[in-house]
Amino acid sequence: MLHSDTNVHSKYSGHAGPIAVPREAAYLINRLTACGYEAFAVGGCVRDSLLGKTPNDWDICTSALPDDMKQCFSGLPVIETGIKHGTLTVVLEHRPFEITTYRIDGEYRDGRHPEQVRFTSDLQADLSRRDFTINAMAYHPGTGLVDPFGGLQDLQAGIIRCVGDAPRRFEEDALRIMRGIRFAAQLGFDIEGKTAGALLDSRELLDRISSERIRTEFDKLLCGSGAMDVLAGYRDIVAQIIPEARPMFDLDQQNDYHIYTVWDHTLHVIDQIKNTPELKLCAFFHDIGKPEMMTVTEDGWGHFYRHELASERIADTVLARLKYDNRTRETVTSVVRNHSIVFRPSAKQARKLLHKLGEEKLRLLIQLEYADVKSQNPIYTESRVSTIGAFSQKVDEVLASENCFSLRDLAIGGRDLLDLGAAQGPEIGKILNTLLDMVMEDELPNQRDALLDTAIKTFGLHTHTEDTGGRTS
Ligand code: ATP
Ligand code: MG
C-alpha cells in the first residue's frame, strides 16, 4: 500500500507519508540536523518503504560536506568508504549506513562515470542526478517526503520514468538501461513511452558497461515477478548483452509438443520455475542451442536432437563472458546438459542420476523439467507433470533408504580389494565402479559378501584365506 495523504510542511514541496525509518537511520539524520545540516533518507529505501517492502539498506544524503560529517559523527564508528565522492559509512548495531553529501555529477565522457562530482547544498540538485523518478525521492521523519519529479505518482501508477531527458540520461550512464528494465521486472511496472524508446535506442551503449555490473542487473531482472513481460518487450536489449539469444526469438518449433516459439517457451519456463538465480539461468539457457540444432523432416516436423549439448556450450560461453562464478557456471551447464532426460518412476533411474549429478543438481533438474513441461503443449502437461512427480518421489525414497548410488555408499571399499590382492592403482576404481553399476542396476545386492564374491569371480581376485600375492600390508 502506498501512503500519500499526510500533509507536512517543509521548505520542500511534496507529499509525505509515515515511513518507518529504522532507529539507527533516524538517529543519524537527527544528529546531522542537530549539527545544523539537512539530512534525508533517499533513493531505494524511500521507494521500497512507500511500496510497503522492507528496504535492503538505508542510504542517507546530507548537505554536510564530508569533513563536516566526520566532525558531526565524532565518537561513532565512521568508515571513509568513498570520501572522494562524498560517502561515509557509519556502522550502528552491526548495520552499515551510507551517508553521502548532496552531489551534482559532472560531465560523463565514457558513458559510465562522471568526470568529477561537485558537492552542493541543494537537495533537489542531488535528486535530479538520480536515474528514475521512483528513485529520486527523499524522506525526513520530521518534514516528510521530498518528491520534485513526481516519483510517488509514478510509484502509484506503476511507471518507470527517467528523471529528465531520457536519451541523455542513458547516454551519460548506460547501466541505467539495465536498471530500467530490471526495476520494471522486479516491480512489475511499465516503462513510460519516452523512457522505453530511449532504452531501446540506446542499447548499443551497453557495450561500454562492465560484465559484472550487467550480470548483477540481469540476475535481478530474471528473478523479478514481471521478468516474462520485460524480456518479451525488451528482447533487443537482451540480444545486446547476449546476442546468442536472438536466434530463439521467432523460431517456430514445428512440433506437436510445442505451441510457442523457442523464445516464448523460454520466457514461460522462466516464469514457471522456482525463484532462485541459478534456476532462472537454467531456464534462460536450456533451449538456447535449439536454433542451431533444428532439423525438419520431410513431413514438416521439427526436431532438435542433442540440442542440450549446444545449449550447454552456449550457456558456458555466455556465463563466462558475464563473469559468473565457477560454481554457478558448472551447476547451470550440468543441469542444461541433462535437461532432455526423460524421467521414469524408477528407483534404478533415480539411483543412476543421483550418482551422475548428485542430489543438489538433480533437484534443480527436476525443477527445470517441471517448468519445461508446463510451458509446452498443455495436452501433455498433466501426464508429464505426474511422471516427474513420481520420479521425484523415487529420488526421495532412494535418499531415505540410503539406497546405493555412489561409491561412498557401496558396502565394500578399495581396502577390501587390496586385501583380495588387487593391484594398487586404477584397477581398484574400475572394479568398484563396475560393482556399483551392478548394484544400481539391481543385479547385485549392496552387501559385503555378495560384492566380495562377485569381485573374486569376475575379476579373478583371491579370497582372504588364499595367498595375497606377496603383499605384506
Ligand atoms: P536496490 O534495491 O537494488 O538497492 P536502489 O535503487 O537502492 O535499488 P542502488 O544501486 O542501491 O539502487 O542505488 C541507490 C540510489 O542511487 C538509487 O535509488 C538512485 O537514486 C541512485 N542511483 C543508483 N545508481 C544510479 C545510476 N546508475 N544513475 C543514477 N542514479 C543512480
Ligand atoms: Mg540500494
From TrEMBL:
Domain Poly A polymerase head: 40-161
Keyword Metal-binding on entry: yes
InterPro entries with a match to the protein in the record: Bact_CCA-adding_enz_type3_sf (IPR050264), CCA-adding_enz_C (IPR032810), HD/PDEase_dom (IPR003607), NT_sf (IPR043519), PolA_pol_head_dom (IPR002646), PolyA_RNA-bd (IPR032828)
Source species, domain of life: Bacteria
One Pfam family per UniProt: tRNA_NucTran2_2
Cofactors named for this entry: Mg(2+)
Domain tRNA nucleotidyltransferase/poly(A) polymerase RNA and SrmB- binding: 188-228
Domain CCA-adding enzyme C-terminal residue range list: 310-454
Keyword terms of this UniProt record: Magnesium, Metal-binding, Nucleotide-binding, Nucleotidyltransferase, RNA-binding, Transferase, tRNA processing
CDD domains per the UniProt record, alphabetical: HDc (cd00077), NT_ClassII-CCAase (cd05398)
Keyword RNA-binding attached: yes
Similarity section: Belongs to the tRNA nucleotidyltransferase/poly(A) polymerase family.
Name this protein carries in UniProt: HD domain-containing protein
Organism: Anaerovorax odorimutans
